[in-house]
Amino acid sequence: MPLSDTGEISLEELQLAARNHGMPLEALRWPVTPPGLHYLLIHYDVPLVDPASWRLEVGGLVEQPLSLTLDDLRSRPAAEHAVTMECAGNGRARLTPRPISQPWLHEAVGTAVWGGTPLVGLLEEAGLEPGAVEVVFTGLDRGIEGGEEQAYQRSLGLHDALMPEVLLAWQMNGAPLLPQHGFPLRLVVPGWYGMTSVKWLASIEVVHQPFRGYQMTAAYRYRDQEDDEGEPVSRIQPRSLMAPPGIPDFFTRARTVQLGPVELEGRAWSGCAPVAGVEVSADGETWHEARLERDVEGRWAWCRWTFRWDPPAPGEYVLACRARDEAGNVQPDDAPWNLGGYASNSVQRVPVTVA
Predict the structure, then answer these.
(1) pTM for the structure as a whole
(2) Which domain holds residue 27?
(3) What is the tens place of the pLDDT at every residue in 105-150?
(4) Interior CA angle at 91 toward 34 and 307, to 5°?
(5) Cβ contact 96:346 at 8 Å
(6) What residues have CB less than 8 Å from 76, skipping those under 6 apart?
(7) Which residues pair with 151 in a beta bridge?
(8) CA pair distance 61, 135, nearest whole angstrom
(9) Coil vs helix vs strand at 15
(10) pLDDT of 41-96, one tens digit each?
């Protein structure tokens, strides 16, 4: 991935930023993100899909290949999960040198209630043959990346694909999927970065060896140099974000609050383990425990945190928050740099003027 040492946003990056969008951080106040505010990343083009002729093909190392309509899928056992989904590149725009790609700051996240049918039931019905190792998911969106023409494809190891929370989803927040969110069907893999949840799903293939497609071997890997093999990006690392307090300046988004007690609030999540706590600081040195509130049902959704901050005097402050999970993972002050800018979960810092 090319790098920028100048900090200037290129025309190509601006073009990507105009196509994709993040969630305004004030929307952290919503327990469930409205679809129009949920972050969105579209690798290629949004395909135009006729639901009447669309089919989901299930094949490969299965005893009984399947070809299913949307009505066939809807007739299957249904499930809903509230899931916090985050782009693996969230935060990369703040890195130095900066990977030249979609320039996310902090806003590539959202929580939705996804409705569909568990993938495990479909795979059990098809019947896995001996030697099955991975499951490959292919979307209808096509493009060129790394000089290679391709459909967007990702795979999951068999153990992960058979987890009960993995969904074939046709609903978002109780309504049919919007075109940009994967209509008519998408994969939703709770706890994993968003690149795993393939949209506009067309086929599922069970294979006998690890899938070597571009999105698995070239993209979405932690590496420090292009010729490193690296490690695959998978589960979401712990992160806490603050809903910006006070009011913003239109152009700079600088925040101003009035002197007196301020109720700070935000959200925290981790795909590795449930959130154990969030700390807040106003000076970068002293940290105070925030109050956690699990106001969205389910293991895979973010939790709300609040903290009463009473600034001692007017002036300039930098607020910060950091999360930790029950597996002992702690959000770092500064996340390790990598070539793709993945899992850049450095502590958020919010400059505030107390007037």
Answers:
(1) 0.95
(2) 3-232
(3) 999 999 999 999 999 999 999 999 999 999 999 999 999 999 999 9
(4) 65
(5) no
(6) 117, 121, 122
(7) 142
(8) 9
(9) helix
(10) 999 999 999 999 999 999 999 999 999 999 999 999 999 999 999 999 999 999 99
Considering the domain architecture, whether residues 305 and 220 belong to the same structural domain is answered as no
- What lies within 8 Å, CB to CB, of 333 at 6+ separation is 322, 346, 347
Residue whose structure tokens are 């996310």? 104
What's residue 226's pLDDT? Answer: 87
Q: Which one-letter amino acid corresponds to residue 341? A: G
Residues 228 and 310 in one domain: no
104-to-6, 94, 207, 249, 253 alpha-carbon distances in Å: 17, 8, 34, 20, 16
Residue 233 contacts residue 339 (beta carbons within 8 Å) = no
38 and 173 housed in the same domain: yes
Going by the DSSP 8-state scheme, the letter that residue 105 receives in this structure is S
For residue 73 the two structure tokens come to: 């899928």
pLDDT at position 343 is 97
Shared domain for 193 and 252, answered yes or no, is no
Q: What is the dihedral of CA 339, 342, 345, 349, to 10 degrees?
A: 60
Cβ atoms of 86 and 239 within 8 Å: the answer is yes
Please state the domain count of the chain.
2
Q: How many CA atoms lie within 13 A of 165 on its CB side?
A: 16
Q: How many CB atoms lie within 10 A of CB 147?
A: 6
